[in-house]
Design brief:
The protein has helices spanning about 20-40, 50-60, 70-95, 100-115, 130-155, 165-170, 190-210, 215-235. With about 240 residues, it is an all-alpha fold.
Length: about 240
């Protein structure tokens, strides 16, 4: 089965909400998660692992006074989450189940587990404590699984965990870029613009919650609940094949 054929919104058009809308919501959640990770648990990335690779590089060069342990833990947890997500995805499809709903259900549950691990934990920017790193590791593993989910869905311009490609495609396919390779004239720009705006809005929302002085557990309850709501919204998905 090709990646682009994993999801079929036409199967139950009257029951299933548009997949694009749900992926934009998940991009918003990523912005919230990264705001919490960077401003309340680190600085450390949990979804955008490019940042952690650079943090480790800066630490290896002993420049910038950035903690290197938290990025290393996040990278390892992310890798574990991605591997587990890939294995679980294969098992779920073998049973005739689509990974999208299952993956998001696990993701929402793990975010709430991270919230429990950070119960009463004060937001902290700087050298993280052990509990801060535990919460960050849980979130990184969750985002590793999310990357499997978004890559299996494979909606162009909506990877849900980063917006660099979305922004490039948006600009290239816009009236400014006019590049047909990026979908100029097809209306795909709207989906890509929505991804960039959703990441910005999620980051701002997460930053405002951190600024309000909420403990880590309450910072994560909202994104965890949103992910579970997205999973429930797509629950009527048909089976891949009869059992």
């Amino acid at each position: 089965m090709s990646l682009s054929g994993v999801m079929d919104e036409s199967a139950h058009p009257s029951r299933l909400p548009p997949l694009t809308t749900l992926l934009v919501v998940l991009t918003f959640v990523t912005g919230m998660i990264e705001a919490v990770s960077l401003l309340a648990l680190g600085p450390v990335f949990t979804a955008m692992q490019t940042g952690n690779v650079l943090f480790l590089a800066f630490g290896a060069a002993r420049e910038g006074s950035l903690p290197a342990l938290a990025p290393a833990v996040s990278l390892a947890a992310f890798a574990l989450g991605a591997v587990c997500g890939a294995r679980f995805e294969g098992a779920s499809e073998a049973l005739g189940r689509r990974w999208f709903v299952i993956g998001l259900g696990i993701e929402g549950g793990l975010i709430l587990v991270a919230a429990g691990a950070g119960w009463g934990l004060a937001a902290h920017y700087g050298e993280p404590t052990g509990r801060h790193m535990v919460v960050a590791a849980l979130l990184a593993a969750t985002m590793g699984m999310r990357n499997v989910t978004s890559m299996r869905v494979n909606v162009p311009g909506l990877p849900t965990t980063l917006v660099t490609r979305s922004m490039t495609s948006f600009l290239g396919g816009s009236a400014l870029g006019q590049d047909s390779a990026f979908g100029y004239g097809t209306g795909a720009w709207a989906r890509r613009a929505a991804a960039v705006l959703a990441m910005f809005a999620g980051g701002m929302a997460g930053a405002l919650l951190v600024r309000a002085g909420l403990p880590v557990n309450w910072l994560l309850v909202v994104p965890g609940g949103v992910v579970l709501a997205v999973a429930l919204a797509y629950l009527p998905q048909p089976l891949l094949h009869a059992r």
